[in-house]
Amino acid sequence: MDQLLSVKMDKSSEVIDHRIHDLSSQKQSGLAWVKDHVEQINHWVNSDGFALLRGLNIVSSNQFSTILETIFGEPLSQYVYRSSPRTAMRNNIYTTTEYHADQVILQHNENAYSNRWPMRMGFFCVVPAKTGGDTPLADSRVVYQNIPESIRDKFERLGVMYVRNYGEIDLPWQEVFQTQSKVEVEAYCKENDIEFEWQGDRLQTRQHRPAVATHPQTGEKVWFNQAHLFHSSSIDGQMPDLMRASIGEQRLPRNAYYGDGSPIADEDIQVINQVYKDATFSYQWQRNDILLLDNMLYTHGRQAYSGVRKVLVGMAKIVS
């Protein structure tokens, strides 16, 4: 029987120790233990939406890749149509977003801005930060339920339009689409219902997506979009106003509108961010931790941190 650690939610006394599994007493290698317990591990994730495996003996990113493929039952997916900088390792393992250590990454479901996203994600802590650097989680069902109806209903009715301008401030299109070919970019956009416009070598895309999704297994509604991340008000300080003045609204690196093109009020984004904040909890990373997520049921983010931090990620079970 696995030993279980008691961990408390931030700002809450609710014990959720059944989701963190201390396997440090296992004599098998990490991979051998996983192979013998695949069904149990998937039951944990299916039941709870996530599971933290602690204390497994893992020696490399290649072994982590094999562990994820064993659990997920298929090869890991390549990360195309990216929204943030990261480094590709072998076997479709990636570093987590490489923003500066003092930046907080807001809660989000991976690729919720796209019409293709992974149902399963796995994170591997190679080196925990000296301070901070946790990967907070939030239940997307709780977020959906707690957003005021007046805001939620409008999003649910109209959806979200994501606008991106690549290259000058945002990632270059070559990195986002993982190609140097405009023809391949256009083919990807057409296949994935992304509107595109070239202005010389500059690319702008627009994509319309629902703001709410229904989980295919549980049938529950989840808040499943990145409007709060793409919205220009998410840029720090006075930068949105300065950028609008210098390059214009249409050239902002990214922005989010309602699906009909009408603007989303800054105040509504602030409300959504507060709902996420209230629903968020986290675990302090330990070396060799593996965090497995149902990407529709739970969001993830990143705390600011100090020192060296290295967390890897792999994704699988792509749906649309």
Automatic annotation (TrEMBL):
Residues 35-314 form the TauD/TfdA-like domain. InterPro entries: AlphaKG_dependent_hydroxylases, TauD-like_sf, TauD/TfdA-like. It comes from the Bacteria. Its cofactor is Fe(2+). Keywords: Antibiotic biosynthesis, Dioxygenase, Oxidoreductase. One of its GO terms (biological process) is antibiotic biosynthetic process. One of its GO terms (molecular function) is 2-oxoglutarate-dependent dioxygenase activity. Signal peptide: none annotated. PANTHER family: GAMMA-BUTYROBETAINE HYDROXYLASE-RELATED (PTHR10696), TAUD_TFDA-LIKE DOMAIN-CONTAINING PROTEIN (PTHR10696:SF56). This is Taurine catabolism dioxygenase TauD.
